[in-house]
Amino acid sequence: MQHTGATATGPGAPRAIPDATIARLPLYLRALAALAEQGLHTVSSGELADASGVNPAQLRKDLSHLGSYGTRGVGYDVATLRTRIGAQIGSTQQWSVVIVGMGNLGSALASYSGYAARGFRVAALVDASDALIGQQVRLEGNDPDVLTIQGDADLADVVRAAQPAIGIITTPAEAAQGVCDRMVAAGLTSILNFAPTVLQIPEGVVVRAVDLGQELQILAYHQQHAQIPADAVVDTDQATSGNGLPAAAEPATGSREEVLQ
Amino acid sequence: MQHTGATATGPGAPRAIPDATIARLPLYLRALAALAEQGLHTVSSGELADASGVNPAQLRKDLSHLGSYGTRGVGYDVATLRTRIGAQIGSTQQWSVVIVGMGNLGSALASYSGYAARGFRVAALVDASDALIGQQVRLEGNDPDVLTIQGDADLADVVRAAQPAIGIITTPAEAAQGVCDRMVAAGLTSILNFAPTVLQIPEGVVVRAVDLGQELQILAYHQQHAQIPADAVVDTDQATSGNGLPAAAEPATGSREEVLQ
DNA sequence: TCCTGTGAACTGGTTCACAGCA
DNA sequence: TGCTGTGAACCAGTTCACAGGA
């Protein structure tokens, strides 16, 4: 991991939130939104940690990096905490994204309805295929709720015009590096890459990669090495419902694998 | 992160590959496939590390966990290494997956054409909507290249019949926990969750989560805190092309953010 | 009493630097 | 000579455990 020159370790810079913490803030925000929707006004670290899938001590330490917004003996005020985390993460302002590659995945991401709620808007759609260029795409709840797919050749112009904060690459692997280079040249410094390839980028650009195949392979590894020595799966502290399988009905609170990290 | 009772620290168990290493093996495999395609027969740790976006020492240490398959003074044999990593990760056998939730994202994932190449096949598609149940979906290159969407009510039967190794959840957040519970009850122990919610699972089940919103928010954080003090972006060791923007044409080899952890 | 906030211990992971072999 | 393999140093992140405030 490497981020921008942002690690300003200057004398008067309290700006030092660990990367691992930052990756979890969206999780907390999501959990807080759910709690607020339930009408809750206060949460303890234990409750919020549970809802976020982390250890309570972890949660408290993470939040302590943002300042002291809890009340001892009581917990955290849901609304206040949402505001504080939101401010840190930048969800107070709206960020534009441009999506390059309007195949199955690109289209699916374009029509993702959760952008607005999280402070994002799709500003432009780009593809290289003549068959797609010029087509109009309807985006539920997006600011311009209809976007015209623009040509890959115009990518630089599109980026300069739309000034998106983030570029999303959903092209085939072969095209990804070229798209990335041109995004960077046009001034983009944050890229979300769904193409199964490693992007070479200059200093100062942040790339996050999501790869379905990689995720599946990691799960396959665990699957393969989950030796079932007659006690690994069944002999947990979970009740079994007589068919030798864990009961589904129960709350099933348990440990879980960390999210992406 | 938490995986199955697989951490068999028994006396004669050399089975101790760190999780962080496992998460990178698919990356190496991908890079090796690309190198093999280029006709390369041998790679040094430096070259492979470059192609995978990691530090050479990291790569060597990772590979050393699988055994010694390199030749000092020369490097690694591409074919051998592919085989070894493939064997570890389980890509020697084929794994079936079931996808639950055939909205935009589910459909996009279903028609992802990279499954076969990585040793996966889609065994079943499930959705709760009457409008979708019964519809046929064409899957390029999949074993049954046409699948009929099955009803959510039949999920347990579908899982028991298809015996998938991995369940993929692409339902709305509200439905995800229910689907997960029933998957687990039906015997699934590896789940890939795209729904923006934390799944509560019993011991012995491995969940990996991918959340678009979370990724965007992490990037937004970096974007917001990438103070541009007139020297953060431009004043790197990258050449500028006169327009004050980094040149796009150059190789742009540089540091990069780690892939997903 | 019950919770937060945090120093301190610990764990896991990364990088360095070099010994050792082709 | 040029590379791998790996102990040792280092660093980041997690968890513990408790002091201290509402």
Could you walk me through the main structural features you see in this protein, from its secondary elements to its overall organization?
The structure is a homodimer of 261-residue chains. Chain A is of the alpha/beta class. The first copy, chain A, has 2 domains: 19-89, Winged helix-like DNA-binding domain superfamily/Winged helix DNA-binding domain (Arc Repressor Mutant, subunit A, Orthogonal Bundle); 95-212, NAD(P)-binding Rossmann-like Domain (Rossmann fold). In chain A, strand 2 (70-71) and strand 3 (75-77) form a beta hairpin. In chain A, the strands form 3 sheets. In chain A, strands 8-5-4-9-10-11 form a 6-stranded parallel β-sheet, sandwiched between helices. In chain A, strands 1-3-2 form a 3-stranded antiparallel β-sheet. Chain A is 34% helix and 16% strand. Chain A is globular, with a radius of gyration of 22 Å. Chain A has 8 helices and 11 strands. At the A-B interface, helix 1, helix 5, helix 7, strand 10 and strand 11 of A face helix 1, helix 5, helix 7, strand 10 and strand 11 of B. Chain A binds a DNA duplex (22 and 22 nucleotides) through helix 1, helix 3 and strand 2.
